[in-house]
Amino acid sequence: MNFRFIIKLFLALFVLGLQKTLWAKEPKSLHYSNDVIVTGADQTQLYVNYLKGKRVAVLANPTTIIGNRHLVDSLLDLKINIVKVFGPEHGFRGNASNGARVKDEVDEQTGLKIVSLYGNKRKPSTKDLEDVDVFLFDIQDVGCRFYTYINVLRDVMESCAENNKELLILDRPNPNGYLVDGPILDMKLKSGIGQFPVPIAHGVTIAEFAQMINGEGWLPNKMKCKLKIVKVANYNHNMLYKLPVKPSPNLNTEQSILLYPSTCLFEGTSLNHGRGTDFAFTILGSPYLKGKYKFNYTPVSKKGMSESPLYMNEICYGMDLRNYDLQALINSKKINISWMIELYKATPNKAAFFDQKISKQIGNIDYLAGVYDFRKQIAAGVSEEKIRKSWEPGLSVYKEMRKKYLIYP
């Protein structure tokens, strides 16, 4: 047999074997249901005629779309009288960084007045609603207590209730709708990243959450907001939905969105959680873990995402979760706290792990977790099983209460 042929055959078999090894390490593909799910906004036949002849205000951001076009632009073309737009965190067009105060402005594309609800005020004023007949709420949530859009929802509901305005919600799937887990917020820790006695992952859509706000009396003086809901068609909570638009600048991949309920807790630690990279919430590290982990990255300033990330321009060592098996996470129906336990153990200076004095970029872990015990449990080396047991009976009580407000199975 020709010697060169044998060498080529050997190399071909080697490459084929290497490819199979690499493919085996790739995360399992997820089955998304976008081909059957129809969002509330996309069902224009259910609400456009209702809006005609009315003065409409819209709470919107870049996720507020019909098809692949912004809902506001589409409704204007359909001759709907939109009198103003309200913008949440990151702004109406999504050009503001996380946590950055947003000013009132005029939208360059439409000439509409934009009232910021993430600047000098958190809810529409009576004056804001004087020329409004119906308030339209259409924004993509990701199903976590510390994601601020459910706070905006409550504030808008309060204003509508006070001023006798109807709130029309165009519902959207919760990409983490399968997940109900975490400690229930201790209301002594109520803050901008925790306003309701719900777990970290609440497992409801925006419309379901609105019904919960009304039903549980979470508006002042137990007021109720008049709701009109356009439901998502062909949806249930176990269906995975791939977001057509990133919900915020740092949640820019499906991996980040599905890991977010677990990895956002690292905002309350001395570890960088990917801010200052294109992989926020999917990589974790710090300079102090050199020698503990081989994986490394360097956070840099990123306009519109994170201008001053923790450990900017320093090499961070830690975990790379970009190829973590999401199907395993979904099957567990649990947030992952093992990463927090592991990285705390690996950190040389444990006293600094939750220390906010190190940097303004470090949040308060008590507010993020929603309870005082979590910080103490991690520091004391309490097992994951015992930590989870401490979330009961509150978590089970919430799951039962949640059933009253579900629109979808």
Mind sketching the topology for me?
Elements: H1 3-25, H2 48-51, E1 55-59, E2 65-66, E3 69-70, H3 71-77, E4 81-87, E5 105-106, E6 113-116, E7 134-137, H4 149-162, E8 166-170, H5 206-215, E9 227-230, H6 254-263, E10 283-286, E11 296-297, E12 316-320, H7 326-332, H8 338-346, H9 365-369, H10 373-380, H11 384-389, H12 394-402
Parallel strand pairs: 1-4, 1-7, 4-6, 7-8, 8-9
Antiparallel strand pairs: 2-3, 5-6, 10-12, 11-12
Low-confidence stretches: 5-27
Can you name the CATH architecture of the largest domain? Answer: 3-Layer(aba) Sandwich
Strand order of the largest sheet: 5-6-4-1-7-8-9
Number of DSSP E strands: 12
Distance between the termini: 65 Å
Overall radius of gyration: 23 Å
- Per the principal axes of the C-alpha atoms, what is the gross shape? globular
Helical residue percent band: 25-40%
- Provide mean pLDDT, rounded: 92
Whole-number total of structural domains:
2
| Count of runs of 4 or more consecutive helical residues | 12
The biggest sheet, with number of strands, parallel, antiparallel or mixed sense and barrel status, is:
7 strands, mixed
CATH C-level class of the largest domain is Alpha Beta
Q: Strand percentage, roughly?
A: 5-15%
Organism: Pseudopedobacter beijingensis
Domain Peptidoglycan beta-N-acetylmuramidase NamZ C-terminal: 258-408
Protein name: Exo-beta-N-acetylmuramidase NamZ domain-containing protein
Pfam families: NamZ_C, NamZ_N
